[in-house]
Design a protein that fits this description.
This protein is mainly alpha-helical. The protein is 66% helix and 5% strand. It has 14 helices and four strands. Helix 3 packs antiparallel against helix 5, helix 3 runs antiparallel to helix 8 and helix 7 packs antiparallel against helix 8. The longest helix has 41 residues.
Length: 384
Amino acid sequence: MAETTRQDERTEQATPKRLEEARRKGQIPRSRELSMAAVLMTGALVLYSNGNQLGTSLREMMIRSFRLSPPALDDPGYLTGALADAVLTVLAACAPLFTGLVVAAFLGTIAIGGWIFTPAPLAFKPERLDPVAGLGRIFSVNGLVEVLKAVAKAGFIVIAAVALLYGSMDRLLGLSDQPLIAAIGDSMTLTLLTLGICAGALLLIAAVDAPFQLWSHARQLRMTRKEVEDELKESEGNPEIRSRVRQMQQEVARRRMLEAVPTADVVVTNPTHFAVALRYDEARMRAPVVLAKGADEVAARIRAVATENKVTLFESPLLARALYWTTDLNQEIPSQLYLAVAQVLTYVYRLKVVREQGGIWPERPVVTVDEKLASGRQPRRRRR
């Protein structure tokens, strides 16, 4: 009852990770009936296509074996050579049959579940010795199916045997009265007929068993919702940890951004809500570049760093907001802001000259900016 309850809770299909882990442990679907049917069918086909050659080789080997001269019977070396020749003849004659059976057994085994080699199923597990668990496996759905398959195989074999004996009784009884060559031919025919009937019966069972094994394997690996959620958290990371990592990454990026502020030519402010640091090198840049930008607390830190490093602060609410909304870090400003920024940079350069060399204090420019750019309604340019 407890096992049934646990199984009922497993309503989710197995995830790729769960399937891969099961595969590494050797838990893959297998159909023994399909493998046996493939072996018998291959044996029947090989005998059908190569039976004459096999019968001829065995007949010649038997004729040679029974035509030993009396002097040869007293020569141990000759007898040993004759035995080796007979063995090699049988092996050579049966080589196609053995090869076909080996290939069929291999392909029939990996037809469901694929090829895998792992020592995990051979490991000793104490729970396998638990008699209660053993009884549970016997009376489970898989155990019932195995019993039904055994009964079906036994029934088919009995039916095939009765049909073969009933239909070929005269031929079976007449084998002893036939010449050797004719008896071998009839024996091969009866053997081929028997293999064909058994292979057909097993194919019918395998046609039912193979889908059942796939269904049973998928059912055994089903997961509960909690297991799926736990695996998702494990693979993608706990949301709290991901949030913490994201915060750390943002802090590192912010620190690097603030480290670039001392190299800026000017910091345009809102004056309190926004701050954008600009730099322009006429020899290496086509247009001014945004080194740092931020809002609220970050803007305050940008202003503080700029003040500490004697970077000029220029108060222009519209321009500050426009730069903030339209330009990403380390990106050139849009062409719509060229004139406004040029006015600011010209003022800053003149101001720097006056501070260093003295002279008339420059007049503060009146910067004009499109309000749409300052409102953030204009689409931001993509980074090239």
